[in-house]
Specification:
The chain is α+β, with helices and mostly antiparallel strands. The chain has two domains: 199 residues, no CATH class; 146 residues, Alpha-Beta Plaits, CATH 3.30.70. The chain is 65% helix and 9% strand. Helix 5 packs antiparallel against helix 6 and helix 5 runs parallel beside helix 7. It starts with a helix and ends with a strand.
């Protein structure tokens, strides 16, 4: 495993506390790494310029941010957050006092606003109060810097270096925090979309056969009618598997389920390009032939029954065969439920006259 992969695993390691999400911990770790790098550069810069006191302060800040990083692995995310916030405010105030307003460290307060708005466990009122506090702090530092000189007057070239470094690391911290926030939001949105699709599937599909359920196929037919009022059809047909109770009694309900699934798979394949099919209830299936008259639908249905008779389902060293009786009716602009009821009546006519046939 490469160093980058190991570092990524360390940074994105989940928290063990089930009451906390890892988003805040990861955000704190990334911020601690960025600030640690920042203070390393500061320490080197100050020591190079023989500003020993500021170099020591920068080194101490590096150690304290390392502690903030470490705290995120102890299931104390809240403590790590407030520790990092207090630490940041403390060193910002110290640097403005020591180096003056022109050093530019006061702009890191904007990073603190982002950090406090990331966690979900902090109430909006606390976030608002904290934001007001940060605003007051920044304005207080501004007023102080206007009225009192800095303790350490740095050379202009060092001040320019500090401003460039501050600008770079502030942008880096803001971009990293926003990228993490948007990535987390995108993941949540993707999960929500998948969950909604799952709910839609559960609401519209029959769980056993995978076909459209009664409500779903009825809605689809009604939608087709509304969009194609001047077209022919649709034709609808209700098919009922013959002697299905006998299959359940003879072979068991598991065998009955296998028959229903096999029939559904065949119907799906057969209706491809001709129309669509759904489970109407029990062993009944509803077939819909859009833009098709009754004579054309009957040809399709006769062919369907012919192929259905060829299906054999192996079950416990036995072979199960089955047939189906169908009643069909053309809609002709009528209410679809009345058309389905008419097809259902024809189905029972077929049952009473011998089964395994199409009645139109």
């Amino acid at each position: 495993m490469s160093f980058v992969s190991k570092l990524k695993d360390i940074i994105f390691q989940d928290v063990q506390n089930e009451n906390e999400t890892k988003k805040t911990a990861v955000s704190l770790r990334i911020n601690a790494i960025i600030m640690g790098l920042y203070f390393i550069f500061l320490c080197v810069t100050f020591l190079t310029e023989r500003e020993t006191d500021m170099g020591i302060i920068s080194g101490a800040c590096f150690v304290l941010y390392a502690i903030a990083f470490w705290l995120t692995y102890l299931n104390h995310t809240k403590s790590a957050l407030w520790f990092a916030e207090i630490l940041s405010i403390a060193w910002i105030v110290t640097f403005v006092y020591q180096l003056g307003w022109d050093c530019g460290v006061q702009h890191f307060i904007f990073v603190l606003i982002l950090m406090i708005f990331t966690p979900g466990f902090i109430s909006n009122s606390v976030k608002l109060i904290h934001s007001v506090f940060l605003f007051v702090t920044r304005m207080g530092l501004f007023m102080y810097a206007r009225n009192f000189p800095a303790v350490n007057q740095l050379p202009s070239d060092v001040t320019v270096v500090l401003q460039v470094m501050n600008t770079f690391f502030i942008f880096l911290a803001l971009v990293a925090g926003l990228l993490l926030f948007t990535y987390d939001s995108a993941q949540m949105e993707e999960k929500l979309m998948k969950y909604n699709k799952k709910l839609h599937k559960l609401a519209s599909e029959d769980p056993l056969t995978g076909l459209m359920n009664r409500r779903s196929i009825l809605t689809k037919v009604q939608k087709y009618q509304a969009e194609n009022r001047e077209d022919i059809g649709p034709c609808v047909a209700i098919g009922d598997l013959d002697h299905f109770k006998r299959i359940n009694d003879t072979y068991g309900h598991e065998a009955g389920d296998e028959v229903l699934k096999a029939a559904a798979d065949f119907f799906t394949s057969f209706m491809n390009g001709k129309g669509y099919v759904g489970r109407w209830g029990g062993e009944e299936f509803l077939f819909v032939f859009p833009n098709c008259n009754l004579d054309e639908a009957k040809i399709y249905l006769l062919d369907l029954l012919k192929e259905l008779r060829k299906i054999e389902i192996p079950y416990n060293d036995q072979v199960i065969r089955f047939t189906m009786t169908v009643g069909a009716e053309e809609c002709g602009g009528e209410d679809i439920e009345k058309t389905i009821n008419a097809a259902d009546n024809k189905l029972y006519m077929g049952k009473e006259s011998g089964r395994d046939k199409v009645v139109c």
